[in-house]
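Exercise 7.
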Amino acid sequence: MADRTHGSPHLTAPRKPMRASPSDPSATDADTPSARATDEDLEHQKAAITRLGRELRALVEATVRTAASPETLHRVADDVRRVTGRLTGRQRARAEIPEVDEFPGGTRIYSPVVGAGSPLAPPVHVTPTEDGLVGHCTLGIAHTGPPGYGHGGMSAMLLDELMGRTCAAAGMAGLTVSLQMRYHRPVPLETPLQILARVTGTDNRKIFVAGSITTLADHTTDLVTAEGVFVAPDPHRTRALFPEL
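Solution. The predicted structure, written as tokens, is:
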């Protein structure tokens, strides 16, 4: 069962602000807010995370494309280790929501699909349509499956994200219980893509959603399509799955 809470308002409970545990010896005044940060603080933090995410994506792309010598790769690995060592201080717990996230009503900044701060995300930019949502992104060499084309798992992740967000946008937040994929044509890398999703029906707590991936230049030719079933969890189940909310 995929977590459909990421990047979208799938749950209605309000987000708790990130706070330090009094027993956390690594927490300091500099890296742990004692109360909710101001809007200006959060915007500065978002901008810094977004910048770092962009540079990390560039590093990942350069890493998977390079034909540099082993000596150069070893030197770069040493440099990367030193940089990683600078990201010290308090670390978030597994289910802890980042202070900068607009959760559950907005983008999750570290989402591997839409997160501007993620080194893994394309990232997808999502906007509403008349009957659902549309996303736009470009897959890089880091997302390779067959040479020159995207990995099939990336297509599934892109569609799962957009289809789950569409449920939430329609006011029917849900968790993925079924995602049936059809791969019609390979998805080209370094080519602007369009991802569409729309709710096609409901049955009690079940939500049925359709999705597709095309190129932006030829949005009439489906590359990948999907049919999904999502289920809105009851409040008790929601609390059990997401105790941090």
